[in-house]
Q: What sequence folds into this?
């Protein structure tokens, strides 16, 4: 994709989103490891986390990572890391694309003494070439061949220009 090209925006229909939530929830339910809390990773993971928490009948916590307010996410992740000593936590995001967000969350948790045996990560979509792995997902993409920019139902409220700008905000993500 050249810098003059618009990304291939791919709106995810609401029914597909709900099917993905059900699939992830069912995978979690079917496993031996069961969470005590769902933790939504803001901003993209908050809506899926709410749905998954309802699907699993669990309370939800949230971490606003995307706002990049200095110290804010770090302070919350420190509290979550302490909670992981005796509580199983399922972190939820919308997509595991490059793996940057998940790597950063894991790094911050580890630096705060997190008990990694009590953590799992889930996304609706995962990139098979991501540098981070997730434990649960509904659909797999391969960024080497799939250059679509997925627009989740809650993101569709934004202006097309804003969505397009977001899609190219990380150099090489869709190239």
A:
């Amino acid at each position: 994709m050249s810098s003059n090209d618009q990304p291939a925006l791919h709106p995810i229909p609401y029914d597909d989103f709900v099917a993905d939530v059900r699939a992830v929830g069912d995978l979690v339910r079917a496993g031996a490891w069961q969470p005590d809390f769902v933790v939504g990773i803001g901003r993209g993971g908050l809506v899926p986390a709410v749905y998954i928490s309802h699907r699993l009948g669990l309370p939800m916590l949230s971490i606003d990572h995307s706002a990049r307010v200095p110290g804010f996410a770090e302070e919350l992740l420190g509290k979550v890391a302490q909670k992981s000593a005796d509580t199983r936590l399922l972190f939820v995001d919308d997509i595991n694309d490059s793996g940057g967000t998940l790597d950063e969350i894991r790094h911050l948790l580890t630096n705060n003494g997190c008990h990694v045996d009590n953590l799992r990560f889930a996304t609706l979509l995962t990139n098979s070439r991501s540098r981070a792995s997730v434990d649960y997902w509904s659909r797999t993409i391969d960024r080497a061949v799939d250059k679509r920019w997925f627009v989740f139902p809650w993101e569709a409220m934004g202006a097309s220009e804003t969505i397009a700008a977001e899609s190219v905000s990380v150099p090489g993500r869709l190239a």
Q: What stands out?
A: The mean pLDDT is 88. The chain has one domain: 13-141. Residues 13-141 form a domain with the Rossmann fold fold (CATH 3.40.50.2020).
